[in-house]
Design brief:
The complex is a heterodimer of chains A (236) and B (536). Chain A is built from ten helices and seven strands. Chain A has 236 residues and is α+β, with helices and mostly antiparallel strands. Chain A has two domains: 94 residues, Beta-grasp domain (Ubiquitin-like (UB roll), Roll); 129 residues, Fumarate Reductase Iron-sulfur Protein, Chain B, domain 2, CATH 1.10.1060.10. In chain A, the strands form two sheets. In chain A, strands 2-1-5-3-4 form a five-stranded mixed beta sheet. A two-stranded antiparallel sheet of chain A has the order 6-7. In chain A, a hairpin with a 7-residue loop joins strand 1 and strand 2. The longest helix of chain A has 14 residues. The relative contact order of chain A is 0.12. In chain B, strands 1, 2, 6, 7, 8, 9 and 16 form a seven-stranded mixed beta sheet that branches. A five-stranded mixed beta sheet of chain B has the order 17-15-10-18-19, covered by helices on one side. In chain B, strands 11-14-13-12 form a four-stranded antiparallel beta sheet. Chain B is globular and about 65 Å long. With 536 residues, chain B is of the alpha/beta class. At the A-B interface, helix 1, helix 2, helix 3 and helix 6 of A face helix 4, helix 9 and helix 12 of B.
């Protein structure tokens, strides 16, 4: 048996936020441990779960400050389990994820206009195969430090999805997609790579954002941060 | 107020939503999870269509394979429609951006699944369901379809035989709401989650929509038909896709003996494995000879899960497996228009019995059904909404009843732990309502279930709060599971023969008298009724 701590929150409780320690079986997944606590010890413990096999994206939480899927993480002695960041906590490990899902809508992360003539070759399919493994678990969203200063940032998973469609030969309006992610989008990323580090599917949003930047430049957009230096240079 | 409300945001629900939206309807999609978290995300193997990209194939062959596997319990007209529309369904999915696996020349790749006469299943690695579902979701966001996510369905509001909407718990606040719609499509998934601990399904697949449908006056059919997937990981029940066998994976017992043709239909393979297990053997899936490159390309998910849950690497080790509950062929009985007995209430996907799978579903036909029949149901429900006037469900009796019920649950005595009963139900269902059944076992479980029904008021919840109360939701889910369990058992006891996925030790033969005969279940004044339609 090992001990883990779980940070819990419920607005109606006094105090609203507490850290509770639980003894759990060693060698089981965190999701199995949480389920066991809920069904055998404390039915008020609240978390999301679904497929148990890393595809539904329901059960992402933070362990010792790192985002993991509860169904694929095996806890160690002394672990601290917390909810994801940058979305309001509803209760215990459950956050209101509607804001994160909204980023997909804001960035237009879909096939905008079909290019009827396009053929997706094997090579082109492979180019974004990993990106389309995304399960929308919000791990990268929670790991992204840009949200500390810019809550309107498009965020890693939405930008990866925009890139996946921009790179798809079936997309007939890649320019429109690129135009839509200039503001609070590709240039706001700090390229810190936290998103890449935590993705349970091995997706690399940082590199997708770099691809979007390259495409943006090709399509006539400029890096607004560089613009400041440029004008400084001219004035000088 | 919606023209059309869809319950469930999986493959069938989103297909229905998009089709209805195209038909001009104002659509809402309500579900207890966010749409991308639906059971559809777990489908791995593929989606069937006789497009013959690898080898010659025909719609007729697809129909013949499907009918053969169904053991006379499929409706040929429905099967024909499904198979004929399959190539168009793949074309549509391709046009909205689905990232299918490809051949060198850009055509969609196909592979062979069990019971198929050729390479017919289009796929996207072993993430076929996930990638289709996400593409549907992206498209639904594009079309501005409104989502009521994390709303838990309680009941359909039905007055004078017509649906007026639903009652649901808004999970974030705990409030019970009445949501009006001129027509409703239920696409809420199956009930294999009853076999808790012995199922490939998500823990959310608890048959809520099916249970609500029988309460609302719908007929359920063929409930005894539960498909057991031959190859799930032994300790967790996590699915190892049929594509592993399609690609040449072999089944071996502890002695290393090969004991069954891996490409027979699922009912036959599952039964052969069950017999090995019952005789004291262990059973393994062997894909070592396929090589690491093949496994990484085609079965990456399986490799990861086998490492996580069994601590073995399929590239170098045998995979310990057992058959577990995977899919429910039975469900809400629908007519050729996907309409239930209740006017304006349609059903599609796994929750419905549109009689295309019969006694045993073929791999690759369920994703197909969600797309083709999901779209048809959406179109038909949109047409119904156009022809009928506004509804006002606010003052309905159902709403008042459900609001009082949810308010009363925190006051239930909670002397009996329903979580323990839920695990127990899963276990006894697997043992006795599983791959091989007999009357004594089935009747034993029925008496346990009837006892559980009596005990429900003495169960209850410890979490008395309103906000996001999963203790409350799981308790109501358990009520649905118990309600369905009784109906499944009555059907399984009454079908005194062995056919497809329903195998009776005490009636081992397929009986002519049951050819084409469906079990029907419904409620009359709250009491369960059952009969076999057309049994001589």
């Amino acid at each position: 048996m090992i001990n883990i701590s779980i940070k819990r929150y419920h607005a109606a409780r006094q105090p609203a936020e507490i850290v509770q320690e639980w003894e759990i079986e060693e060698g089981v997944t965190l999701l199995e441990a949480l389920t066991s606590i809920k069904t055998k010890k404390d039915p008020t413990l609240t978390f999301r779960s679904g497929c148990r096999s890393c595809v539904c994206g329901s059960c992402a939480v933070r362990v010792n400050g790192r985002e993991v899927l509860a169904c694929s993480y095996k806890p160690k002695e002394g672990d601290l389990v917390e909810p994801l960041r940058f979305e309001p906590v509803i209760k215990d490990l459950v956050t209101d994820q509607s804001g994160g899902f909204e980023t997909l809508k804001r960035t237009g992360a879909w096939l905008e206009r079909l290019n009827d003539e396009a053929v997706v070759t094997l090579e082109e399919e492979k180019r974004t195969e990993v990106q389309t493994d995304c399960i929308l678990c919000h791990s990268c969203y929670s790991a992204c430090p840009v949200f500390e200063t810019n809550p309107l940032f498009a965020g890693p998973f939405a930008l990866t999805r925009v890139w996946r469609y921009v790179a798809d030969p079936r997309e007939g309006d890649p320019k429109g997609k690129i135009d839509a992610v200039q503001h609070d989008g590709v240039w706001d990323c700090t390229l810190c790579g936290e998103c890449t580090a935590v993705c349970p599917e091995g997706i690399d949003p940082k590199s997708d954002i770099l691809m979007l930047r390259t495409k943006s430049t090709q399509m006539g957009h400029t890096d607004p941060n560089m613009g400041a230096f440029g004008s400084f240079g001219l004035d000088f | 107020m919606f023209d059309l409300l869809i319950i469930g945001g999986g493959g069938a629900g989103l297909s229905a939503a998009l089709a209805a939206h195209d038909a001009g309807a104002k659509v809402g999609v309500l579900g207890k999870n966010y749409p991308t978290r639906s059971q559809t995300s777990m489908a791995q193997g593929g989606i069937n269509a006789a497009i013959g990209n690898i080898e010659p194939d025909s719609v007729e062959a697809h129909i013949a394979d499907t009918l053969k596997s169904a053991h006379t319990l499929a409706d040929e007209g429905m099967v024909r429609r499904l198979c004929e529309k399959a190539p168009d369904a793949i074309g549509w999915l391709d046009r909205i951006g689905t990232p299918f696996s490809r051949l060198e020349d850009g055509r969609v790749a196909q592979r062979r699944l069990g019971g198929a006469s050729g390479k017919r299943a289009c796929y996207a690695q072993d993430y076929t369901g996930l990638k289709i579902l996400h593409t549907l979701h992206d498209t639904a966001l594009k079309q501005g379809i409104e989502f009521l996510s994390e709303y838990y369905l309680l009941n359909f509001i039905v007055e004078e035989g017509r649906v007026l909407g639903v009652t649901a718990v808004e999970m974030a606040t705990g409030e019970v709401k009445a949501i009006g719609a001129k027509s409703v499509v239920v696409a809420s998934g199956g009930y294999a989650g009853l076999y808790r601990g012995f199922t490939t399904n998500s823990s959310a697949t608890t048959g809520d929509g099916v249970a609500a449908a029988i309460r609302a006056g719908c007929v359920l059919s063929d409930l005894e038909y539960v498909q057991f997937h031959p190859t799930a990981l032994r300790s967790s029940g996590i699915l190892i896709s049929e594509s592993a066998r399609g690609a040449g994976g072999r089944l071996l017992n502890s002695k290393g003996e090969h004991f069954v043709d891996e490409l027979l239909t699922r009912d036959q393979v599952a039964k052969a494995i069950w017999e090995q297990l019952e005789s004291g053997e262990e059973v393994f899936l062997d894909i070592r000879h396929l090589g690491e490159a093949f496994v990484e390309e085609n079965l990456p998910q399986e490799r990861k899960l086998a490492k996580l849950y069994e601590g073995i690497d399929p590239v170098t080790d045998l995979i310990p497996i057992k058959p577990v509950a995977h899919y429910t062929m039975g469900g809400i009985d629908v007519d050729h228009m996907h309409c239930t007995k209740v006017k304006g209430l349609y059903a599609a996907g796994e929750c419905a019995n549109s009689k295309v799978h019969g006694a045993n579903r073929l791999g690759g036909n369920s994703l197909l059904e969600t797309i083709v029949f999901g779209r048809e149901a959406g179109e038909n429900a949109a047409a119904f909404a156009r022809q009928h006037g506004d509804v006002n469900p606010r003052n309905s009796e159902q709403f008042e009843k459900d609001r009082s019920f949810v308010a009363a649950i925190p006051h239930f005595t909670n002397q009996i732990d329903f979580y323990e009963k839920r695990d127990f139900l899963g276990k006894i269902f697997y043992r006795n309502v599983g791959i091989v059944r007999n009357e004594m076992g089935l009747k034993g479980v029925l008496s346990v279930i009837r006892q559980m029904q009596k005990e429900l008021p003495f169960m209850g919840i410890a979490d008395k709060s309103r906000e996001y109360n999963t203790n409350l939701i799981e308790f109501i889910e358990f009520g649905n599971m118990v309600e369905l369990a009784e109906a499944i058992l009555v059907c399984a006891i009454s079908r005194k023969e062995s056919r497809g996925a329903h195998q009776r030790e005490d009636h081992p033969r397929e009986e002519k008298s049951y050819d084409g005969v469906h079990s029907l279940s419904w409620k009359h004044d709250g009491t369960l009724c059952n009969e076999f339609g057309g049994l001589a």
